[in-house]
């Protein structure tokens, strides 16, 4: 009976994950929707070579790596800290209210949330209104290269950190409460409890989520950056996903777009294997 409960999940992955992998073939073809996969010409690594030799490859690859690293370094710890803080709130109604407030942005699409960010950072937005109170001139934040990456990282943290903290809150709930009682009897303060009990108790969860995060280091998603960037910041904001959308999809070069997507997936798979192996070697948990 327990195996029967697995069938819907297995069917989902087979239908929506494994069967579509047949479409990877078009990365090695000059695919035409009218000819189909069977009738399109096989061209080998032509589209991969074109991507790697494109003048824009270095720029979009560098931007993708940098923004991913910034999100990883500055964004990954935020849900952990948020979960630790929410876990320490003992007033139940206040705890639930704060959880709801930090979860809400996740349910907004980037079209809506990006619009809010654009409005807030516009010359007549709230941020420039605050700067005006201190006698400062308005700043076109989204038109300055030095601000763009920071805006992308901060807006992503504001939108997703609350939702990401749910997993850590669930992991914290599974920590043995008797460990905290023993620590208090030994005179441990709250910081000691967090450092020696809570964080070690959720270490495996942190490691697993970090491994999964590394697997998508080249896949930032097109929606956020596409909503926020403009020609003035292409040099620092154009990433692989927006490049593929602009060159591969709007020009209907489906084979080229598939080739770049396959490249991203292969790099992600390699990073997952490496990070999983390092995690197990140094005594941590892993995905397998």
TrEMBL record:
An individual GO BP term: transmembrane transport
Membrane topology: Multi-pass membrane protein
GO cellular component: plasma membrane
Coiled coil: none
Keyword terms: Membrane, Transmembrane, Transmembrane helix, Transport
Domain ABC transmembrane type-1: from-to ranges: 61-275
Signal peptide positions on this chain: none
Subcellular location: Cell membrane; Membrane
Major site of localization recorded for this protein: membrane
Annotated TM spans: 6-27, 65-86, 107-134, 162-180, 201-222, 254-274
Pfam families named in the record: BPD_transp_1 (PF00528)
Matching CDD domains: TM_PBP2 (cd06261)
Family membership: Belongs to the binding-protein-dependent transport system permease family.
PANTHER family xref list: POLYGALACTURONAN_RHAMNOGALACTURONAN TRANSPORT SYSTEM PERMEASE PROTEIN YTEP, PROTEIN LPLB
Name this polypeptide is given: Sugar ABC transporter permease
Provenance organism: Cohnella zeiphila
